[in-house]
Design brief:
16 strands, Rossmann fold, Dihydrodipicolinate Reductase, domain 2, 25% strand, alpha/beta, single chain, 5-stranded parallel β-sheet
């Protein structure tokens, strides 16, 4: 099996850049890591994240882009710079795994999509819940009609952030909606498709004197359905309350928590998830099934899939057209049209 020669462009303070690099390191059967480069001001702003690169050569951006033996890159810089560096990689014919969701300029994102469509290279975006086993199973069964007529998806993803993090949300329109809400918009679109109307309701709580949009809420309307997504950076116990509820005429499925960290699992970033299904039995009485997944490492399946796509063994189910539709709906949820 051919190893993917890969390098990383950037790291980020508030997202998953160091975790992605670490996960590639524990998958040497798939990845031959050539090195990394730091861009923007990451040496200063992300100093506490740089230990993940120990033992690997620091390269210049030009060395990575101009090396024809490097098959792929992971673009993991700060959100506002993602599309810029992904475009550079696309212009140099690299396969790309990019942190979600891309910067906020729709025209720039459209150009990136056009470039990868024309080149045939992989653009794989780091929406981690796509590889959560219960999320993936729920999407598949919903599409197959197992839940009957789906009339609502309710998705919630919050946490308790320090003041400095919530101030950083002001970097982009929509704040928490852009930062975490992108995951939930993705889930709703996978299950229900494109909405007929998007109503953004993002606001600032004002707690600790922070004036950024740290409480996100959006309504996605369909001709015969309404779905809602909510996320916040001020919620005590928010992480454990993250959930997705899919309501259909035949079945209601709730996934909560979406992830729970597994202690002493041996590998970092190991989590599990739980699911409750409620439906009517043949006697028309309510039935309930509850299950808990096996532990899984949050990023390994995601990066394994990316490697298989680069080798041509797997087709990316998330097409460039879908990623562009998702980006446009996310911008509407952020109030950034």
């Amino acid at each position: 099996m051919k190893k993917i020669r890969i390098a990383q462009i950037g790291v980020n303070k508030y997202s998953h850049g160091s975790e992605i690099f670490h996960t590639m390191k524990i998958m040497p059967e798939l990845f031959d890591i050539v090195g990394y480069t730091l861009v923007e001001d990451e040496r200063e702003t992300c100093a506490n994240k740089l230990k993940c690169f120990a033992g690997y050569p620091e390269l210049t951006l030009a060395e990575i882009l101009n090396d024809p033996t490097i098959d792929a890159v992971t673009v993991e810089t700060d959100e506002i710079h993602l599309t810029k560096y992904a475009q550079m990689a696309a212009d140099h014919g690299k396969h790309i795994h990019m942190e979600k969701p891309g910067s906020q300029c729709t025209a720039d994102f459209e150009r990136l999509i056009d470039t990868v469509k024309n080149s045939g290279k992989v653009l794989h975006i780091g929406y981690m819940y796509r590889y959560n086993p219960y999320i993936a199973d729920t999407v598949e069964r919903a599409r197959a009609g197992e839940f009957g007529k789906i009339y609502s998806v309710e998705a919630h993803m919050s946490r308790l952030d320090p003041k400095a993090t919530r101030e950083w949300f002001g970097t982009f329109k929509g704040g928490m909606m852009f930062y975490l809400g992108c995951h939930l918009v993705d889930l709703v679109l996978q299950i229900q498709g494109m909405p007929s109307e998007v109503i953004p309701c993002n606001t600032a709580t004002g707690l600790d004197g922070v004036c950024t949009e740290d409480l996100g809420f959006a309504v996605l309307k369909y001709p015969d359905a309404v779905s809602v997504i909510r996320m916040g950076g001020t919620e005590i116990g928010g992480y454990s309350r993250r959930q997705v509820v899919v309501c259909g005429s035949e079945r209601t499925v709730g996934i909560k928590p979406i992830e729970a960290h597994v202690k002493n699992a041996g590998e970092p970033y190991t989590v599990c998830t739980e699911r409750t299904e409620m439906f009517l039995g043949e006697d028309r009485r309510g039935k309930q099934l509850h299950s808990k997944s096996q532990p899984f490492q949050r990023y390994k399946d995601m990066l394994s899939a990316f490697a298989a796509m680069v080798r041509g063994e797997k087709q990316n189910p998330y097409t460039p057209e879908y990623e562009l539709d998702l980006f446009r709906i996310l911008m509407k949820c952020c109030g950034a049209e």
